[in-house]
């Protein structure tokens, strides 16, 4: 029951966007642009500014990079076999590589492993944010480069989330206190970012027609995200100098459904937004079955 309670607010926020789109037919792109370019940098800044940086970031960072590279390689192999173009390949990467370890994974780890586990979940959330706003943006831009005059790497450099994260790291390292009044403004924008992203996802889901869902590709994406990724994570943890509880958390986080942020990237760069958003929704629904099975295996 507690596991289901973690999901209720997630689907509740999705529903707000879905219902709002059905009733009001709101234009999605301007809202996604605001969330990505104006709000997300504040969230990235706060995430890195407020969390203590230590050696745990090194080991968990290595894990996330290896997991990201391995799953991207899987997508490349499948794309090569199926003769997919850049857009199809990038859409699959957005739907399959990046997991929702923030508003889904972190509370779940807290529920199962307690405060000690929460420490590692927060670190993973921070590092995953950095990977998504670099690697994720790169592939979103690369997937539609025929319509974009600026090269994918330049799109990454132009993306303000990176600078929010770097500024947060810098101020954290030199221990500059911004004061409570400044942080009130940062907190207000940061707290609104994730709900806004989830509302946009709900709005995008309202535009999807079931007849046009790419079920074959969706099945591949679900397999990679919910089944293959935790297996890859298990192999990686065999070589990491961390305790058993940390290994279990890493494997569990690797099995999280697709991150909502990827829908924003797909919308912004027009790279299979319907496919990526449907993968986010269906993987979240399917995780209600896959995650309890994984927990039985781990625990």
Automatic annotation (TrEMBL):
Location(s), subcellular: Cell membrane
Coiled-coil ranges per UniProt: none
InterPro entries named in the record: Mem_transp_PIN-like, Na+/solute_symporter_sf
Membrane topology: Multi-pass membrane protein
Keywords: Cell membrane, Membrane, Transmembrane, Transmembrane helix, Transport
Transmembrane segments annotated in the record for this chain: 6-24, 57-81, 93-114, 120-141, 161-186, 192-210, 222-242, 248-267, 274-298
Main location, first listed in the record: membrane
Top-level taxon: Bacteria
Family statement: Belongs to the auxin efflux carrier (TC 2.A.69) family.
Protein's name according to its UniProt entry: Permease
């Amino acid at each position: 029951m507690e596991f289901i309670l973690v999901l209720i607010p997630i689907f509740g926020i999705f529903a707000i966007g879905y219902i709002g789109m059905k009733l009001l037919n709101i234009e999605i792109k301007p809202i996604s642009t605001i969330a990505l370019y104006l709000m997300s940098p504040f969230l990235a800044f706060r995430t890195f500014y407020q969390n203590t940086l230590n050696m745990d970031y090194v080991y968990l960072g290595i894990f996330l990079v290896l997991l990201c590279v391995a799953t991207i390689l899987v997508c490349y192999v499948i794309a090569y076999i199926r003769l997919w173009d850049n857009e199809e390949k990038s859409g699959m990467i957005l739907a399959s590589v990046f997991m929702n370890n923030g508003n889904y994974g972190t509370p779940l780890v807290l529920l199962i492993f307690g405060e000690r586990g929460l420490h590692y979940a927060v670190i993973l959330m921070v590092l995953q944010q950095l990977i998504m706003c670099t690697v994720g943006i790169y592939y979103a831009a690369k997937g539609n480069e025929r319509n974009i005059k600026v090269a994918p790497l330049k799109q990454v450099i132009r993306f303000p989330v990176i600078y929010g994260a770097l500024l947060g790291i810098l101020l954290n390292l030199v221990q500059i206190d911004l004061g409570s009044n400044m942080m009130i403004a940062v907190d207000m924008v940061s707290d609104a970012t994730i709900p806004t992203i989830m509302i946009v996802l709900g709005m995008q889901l309202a535009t999807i027609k079931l007849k046009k869902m790419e079920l074959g590709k969706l099945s591949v994406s679900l397999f990679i995200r919910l089944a293959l990724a935790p297996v890859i994570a298990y192999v990686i943890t065999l070589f990491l100098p961390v305790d058993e509880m940390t290994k279990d958390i890493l494997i569990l986080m690797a099995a999280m459904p697709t991150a909502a942020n990827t829908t924003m990237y797909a919308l912004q760069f027009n790279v299979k937004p319907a496919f990526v958003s449907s993968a986010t929704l269906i993987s979240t629904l399917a995780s209600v079955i896959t995650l309890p099975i994984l927990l039985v295996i781990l625990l």
